[in-house]
Amino acid sequence: MFKKNSNDTKDFSYKVGDIDEVIDSRGNSVILLRSIAWGDHEEKLELRKWVIDINKEQALRGVSFLTDEGPHNLTNTLIKLGYGKTEEILKTLSERDDFKDAIKTYDKPQHLKKSGKYLDPKEILS
């Protein structure tokens, strides 16, 4: 329950969907990636800080993605900025159903084509 003001109280009910992943934690604070529906609203993917106690969890600041493309953009941006361990990213990607088809259509970057140095993803993953 969160207080809107001293005379009014609003119950923020929510239902957690099939995505409920811990991203970071320290003490009783945790950042969760969740598929969550607040009140009567539709389920959305969000990244939010929570305070977890024995009997309750309290939502703090967070963000819900506005579109289905948002999480994809975040993932690509984090990887471009050097976040994520390359070996773990490749292992996770190799377990996806669409991985083999994506490798078949993988286009070598232009600068590698010009230099004659080609990167074969199959060599990396074998």
Quick take:
With 126 residues, this protein is α+β, with helices and mostly antiparallel strands. The protein is 30% helix and 37% strand.
List keywords for this structure.
alpha+beta; two-stranded antiparallel sheet; 37% strand; 5 helices; 2 domains; elongated; 126 residues; 30% helix
Helix content: 25-40%
Distance from N terminus to C terminus (CA atoms, Å) equals 52 Å
Radius of gyration: 20 Å
Biggest sheet features: 4 strands, antiparallel
Total domain count:
2
* Count, helices: 5
Stretches where pLDDT is under 50 for at least 5 consecutive residues are 1-9
Structural class: alpha+beta
Q: How are helices and strands ordered from N to C?
A: EEEEEEHHHHH
How many β strands by DSSP? Answer: 6
What topology, given as strand order, has the largest sheet? Answer: 3-4-5-6
Shape descriptor reads elongated
Strand content: 35-45%
Instruction: Estimate the mean pLDDT confidence.
Output: 84
